[in-house]
Design brief:
Strand order of the largest sheet: 1-2
Oligomer: single chain
Structural class: mainly alpha
Largest sheet: 2 strands, antiparallel
Order of helices and strands: EEHHH
Radius of gyration: 20 Å
Number of helices: 3
Number of strands: 2
Length: 119
């Protein structure tokens, strides 16, 4: 199955045109394709599989957090002043933000009433 239904860009690559009321991608307008994210995948909340898929993704992030925390505990027992512990603790906060974002997306998708099988 080819991924030709959606084209994905970073939000920063889009410019709002007040005259047309639409967003425009400068690279596309100029005939280029550099702004296209070829490795991005779109999961729409109305997709009946979105909720479970996003839940699994959030759970995977939580597993990574748990593994890092276990490693930190082990490091603290053996070498309490290692710099890597501080770096890992900072990384956990970012992972927790990602986890929470995907949990919320999953929750919203799971609770939609207009779910449908994707076309």
């Amino acid at each position: 199955m080819e991924n030709d239904k959606y084209i994905v860009f970073k939000a920063g690559d889009a410019v709002y045109n007040a005259t047309t009321g639409k967003y425009e991608i400068e690279a596309i307008k100029e005939g280029g394709e550099s702004a296209v994210l070829h490795d991005a995948v779109v999961i729409r909340p109305q997709d009946i599989f979105a909720g479970p898929g996003l839940s699994a993704y959030a759970a995977s992030i939580q597993t990574a957090i748990d593994l890092i925390k276990a490693e930190i505990r082990q490091q603290k027992e053996h070498a309490p002043k290692q710099v890597i512990v501080e770096e890992d603790e900072a990384g956990i906060e970012h992972l927790e933000e990602l986890r929470d974002f995907f949990w919320m997306q999953a929750y919203e998708a799971l609770n939609r009433e207009d779910k449908k099988i994707p076309d």
